[in-house]
Amino acid sequence: MDIKKNREKAEAYWLNLTDYEMAQIREFRASAGVNYVDKKEAYITIDKPIKGYCDLLVSWSDSFEGHLPYQMGYFGYQTESEALSVALDSAVELEVPLDYVREDGRHIYM
User: For the whole prediction, is pTM greater than 0.90?
Assistant: First the structure.
């Protein structure tokens, strides 16, 4: 994964966001029922269910008093690197942290 390329792409995207677009993002988040401003902030990670990898949004649930999977992404990622690339893009797009421990034990946090 080319970190520099992803960083440049993310910077270009966020530097060109209009106030209207940011308001739309905030409205969508509010309608989804996830409290992104809570101190127990939502985050993106990667899960490996039975077939392949997927990106996963985890958020705090007041009902269950804990972090729960909120939304699972596409299940078809064949490699950990492919899933990580998508998860990183999702984290940048949603402005939430990426928090993932790789299979080799390395911790990736953004």
Answer: no
Burial of 99 (0-12, 13-18, 19+ CB in 10 A): middle
Domain boundary assignment for the chain: 3-109
36 pLDDT tier (thresholds 50, 70, 90): low
- Provide the pLDDT confidence category of residue 69 given band limits of 50, 70 and 90: confident
Sort residue 98 into left (φ over 0), alpha (ψ -120 to 50) or beta.
Answer: beta
Buried b (16+ CB within 10 A) or exposed e, 10-44: eeeeeeeeeeeeeeeeeeebeeeebbbeeeebbbb
Tokens standing for residue 101: 């421990």
